[in-house]
Design brief:
four-stranded mixed sheet, Butyryl-Coa Dehydrogenase, subunit A, domain 1, 11 helices, Butyryl-CoA Dehydrogenase, subunit A, domain 2, alpha+beta, Butyryl-CoA Dehydrogenase, subunit A, domain 3
Length: 383
């Protein structure tokens, strides 16, 4: 790391590295891997002294774990939505009963979560959601509507859903944050979305009267917008430094490819390689600078603008290094069979979405303009 660590932090990093070295590489599916992490106490390091089944760790130790995890080649996490998004939200807004019910299974890797925010007509404009949650005679809620771009919905046990509980409300008023079980045949349907990469990481989710218990409304009925915005603030932080480790590994592979193919002889390629390296260092120092300074309304938006554009340009550079071969797919191809992409092609195609998902660049610039620079608010259309 690039800042001073106490001896106990270095010991923590060594322990993390040794544990990952001993456990990464086994034939485990992703759900089993989550349980392995949970059993060893590696889930929920930043939750504090809550007694919910997790070990505690300082901020620098959390960074050390995230970086070692990224370097180890460990599987992509399927439990990160529960750990990094739901758990901090419950710790900030949940009741004691909600924390006791939901945090231990997340810490143990036993229950997986997905996020029910975006809709076909309410992506960047989240306040325009139409999913409804009506109170039934037995006191429960009946959730009806459609969510889209729902990561890992096909694996999740639960979904936290932003829905309109006041039918007469508009925009960000009258919304509630509900915890909805996914195992409701006939009431919850998941449809994978096929991407340009040939994979299906995202899903459409249809709710048709799905049940949600009244005691599983986080923050109380009508407080959904406040809770939802709080959750979005947890999307960035320690994880950005681990993300940058992955970025550095991708850049290193592109540099090797440029050297091996002699593309590095091209002065344009050399300039772009150096620029990507320099910008990645800037991103790291910016992340370290803001890591211990919560409450800056512009920091998450600025970070998203930085890494989204950077990673998209990295995908373009990967194909530039490949040259004409980068535009060629497999020799044998049929419409019924999934096509194979090489690493550079996958990076290029997947990174096209980096400036859209998680809050588009336009939305991030609006947030900075209005909340940081104090510029006049953007006019909203009438709904």
């Amino acid at each position: 790391m690039d800042f001073g660590l106490a001896v106990e932090d270095e010991d923590f990093r060594f322990e993390a590295r040794e544990w990952l070295s001993a456990h990464v590489g086994g034939a485990q599916d992703r759900r089993t891997w989550e349980r392995t992490l949970g059993k060893a106490g590696w889930i929920g390091l930043g939750w504090g002294e809550g007694g919910y089944g997790n070990r505690t760790a300082t901020l620098t130790q959390q960074v050390a774990w995230a970086e070692e995890y990224a370097r180890s080649g460990a599987p992509a996490r399927s439990g990160h939505i529960g750990e990094k998004l739901l758990a901090p939200t419950l710790l900030a807004h949940g009741t004691h009963e909600q924390k006791t019910r939901f945090l231990p299974p997340v810490a143990g890797g036993e229950e997986l979560w997905c996020q029910g925010y975006s809709e076909p007509g309410a992506g960047s404009d989240l306040a325009g959601i139409r999913t409804k949650a009506e109170r039934a005679s037995d006191g429960t809620y009946r959730v009806s509507g459609q969510k889209i771009w729902t990561s890992l919905a096909h694996e999740a046990d639960w979904c936290f859903v932003l829905a309109r509980t006041d039918p007469d409300s508009r925009r960000h008023h009258g919304l509630s944050f509900l915890l909805v079980p996914m195992d409701q045949p006939g009431r919850v349907e998941v449809r994978p979305i096929r991407q340009m990469t040939g994979t299906s990481d995202f899903n459409e989710v249809f709710f048709d009267g799905a049940h949600a218990r009244a005691e599983h409304v986080v923050g109380g009925a009508g407080a959904g917008w406040k809770v939802a915005m709080s959750l979005l603030g947890f999307e960035r932080g320690v994880s950005t430094l681990a993300q940058q480790v992955g970025f550095a590994q991708e850049l290193a592979r592109i540099v090797r490819a440029a050297v091996e193919s002699d593309a590095v002889r091209d002065p344009v390629v050399r300039e772009r390689l150096v620029r990507q390296w320099a910008e990645l260092r800037v991103m790291r120092w910016n992340a370290l600078r803001t890591l211990g300074s919560p409450g800056d309304p512009g920091a998450p938006s600025a970070a998203k603008l930085l890494w989204g554009g950077w990673h998209q340009r990295l995908g373009e550079l990967a194909l530039l290094v490949r040259g004409a071969a980068g535009s060629v797919g497999p020799v044998e191809w049929s419409p019924s069979a999934p096509y194979e992409l090489d690493e550079a092609q996958h990076l290029f195609l997947f990174s096209r979405a980096d400036t859209i998902y998680g809050g588009s660049d336009q939305v991030q610039r609006t947030i900075i303009a209005e909340r940081v620079l104090g510029l006049p608010r953007e006019p909203k259309g009438v709904v």
